[in-house]
Amino acid sequence: MLSQGIQTPRQEPDLTPRQQEILKAVVQEYVASATPVGSSTVRRAGGLEVSSATIRNELAVLEELGYVVQPHTSAGRCPTVKGYRYFVERLMEDAELPLPEQRLIRHQFHQIRLNLDQWMRLTAAVLARIARSASLVTPPRAANARFRRIELISINEALCLMVLVLQDSSIHQEMLLVDQPMDQGDLTRISNILNAILANQSAAEIRACAHPDLRELGEWGGHVLERLVEIMEQRDQRSIREVYRDGLVNVLSQPEFEDADKFRQVIEVIEHPSLLESILAKILNANGVQIIIGGEGQYEEIDDVSLVLSPYGLRGIASGVLGIMGPTRMSYAHAISTVRYVARVMDDLIADVYGSGEIGFL
Questions:
Q1: Any idea what the CATH number is for the domain that residue 226 is in?
Q2: I need a surface site. Which of 54, 139, 159, 177 has the fewest CB within 10 A?
């Protein structure tokens, strides 16, 4: 079942069955050819047993309703954003990714054990290659970082290595100056106190914690506590900002982007942090595949670009967003089936990792 996009379309009178068939043919032929679709092509592609004149009349109605547009008088029709939206939600046949592609994806993910950076790069590469589009992937993160454990390791009299592990299995390492005599036994004692008190707490909960044993940390131990909270707060702030990308050339090679202004628009979507963060943050809390078709609602600045995105992972434990970006003239059925299947694979892999308590892949 396909989830509706973020922007819910306004309800309008339904199209007749014939108008639906004509609109479906226009979308499918335009996606395939990138050229306006004429009435004779619609008649042939749609298998319609009516005259070309009847189809032209219906196309005129669809144009009046805003589903198609005629670039100039002698041209055929192209779908509008409204036409694409109607096609995606009402006319497109829901399909699974072909089995050979499913097997290829599974094989690539299970072939070797990966660290997080390699895992994300592989996900972006697989999406871009299978969907033949640009891909976007954010690493799996918890909505709020939660403390798992800390280790303090003596390097020399003046230096200590702090290893902080969060519940999402991310590992943060930092060298700390030791400004007073302290051996490994002292460092282990501080680690044990923090591990016993702070387990599974967020940064805000740690700041509010008034456990009496925290007084045993001493001045330097208090500095360690403050630093680990700062790291957790920084992790919360950048959770959706880190984005892995691949396949941009797949998009820029499409005929739509031969125009310099449209070419620049794609680059701006990829490189504009606030716009991308806003979109990805909403998807992170959505259910299932979401489709943003250029120009809808609040995303007018991406009027020639569509995104097919999905959350993945274990919500509240470790989740991210993955998907693809391409021209509005994209094969939505293939894009949706690709994104949906890769999201399922990621769901399974994260469930395996977090269910077993392993952190080696990070």
A1: 3.30.390.60
A2: 177
- For the chain, the domain total comes to 3
CB 310 within 8 A of CB 340: yes
- Starting at the edge strand that comes first in sequence, how are the strands of the sheet with 147-154 ordered? 147-154, 159-166, 171-177
Asked if 326 and 306 touch (Cβ cutoff 8 Å), the reply is: yes
SS3 182: coil
- Say whether pLDDT at 53 is over 50: yes
Q: What is the mean pLDDT of residues 311-333?
A: 89
For residue 38, give its domain range: 17-91
Q: What is the pTM (predicted TM-score) of this model?
A: 0.73
Q: What is the distance between the alpha carbons of residues 286 and 238, in angstroms, rounded to a whole number?
A: 19
Q: How confident is the model at residue 308, as a pLDDT? A: 96
Give dist(CA 48, CA 42) in Å, integer: 8
Other residues' Cβ atoms within 10 Å of the Cβ of residue 225: 21
Gap between the Cα atoms of 140 and 244, Å rounded? 12
**Does residue 352 contact residue 169 with C-beta atoms inside 8 Å?**
no
Residue 347 and residue 351: Cα distance in Å, rounded? 6
Do residues 81 and 169 both lie within one domain?
Answer: no
pLDDT tens across 171-229, in order? 899 999 998 888 999 999 999 999 999 998 989 899 998 888 888 888 899 999 999 99
Q: How would residue 356 be classed by pLDDT, with cut points 50, 70 and 90?
A: very low
Check whether residue 244 and residue 133 sit in a common domain.
Answer: yes
Average pLDDT on 78-84 reads 94
The three-point CA angle 330-19-131 to 5° equals 15
Domain-located, residue 9: no
CA-wise closest residue to 163 among 123, 191, 205, 135: 191
- Contact call for residues 251 and 266 (beta carbons, < 8 A): yes
Dihedral sign for Cα 122, 132, 338, 136, please: positive
What is the number of H-type helices and E-type strands within the chain? 13, 10
The residue among 321 and 140 whose pLDDT is bigger is 321
Nearest CA-CA partner of 331 in 282, 275, 291:
291
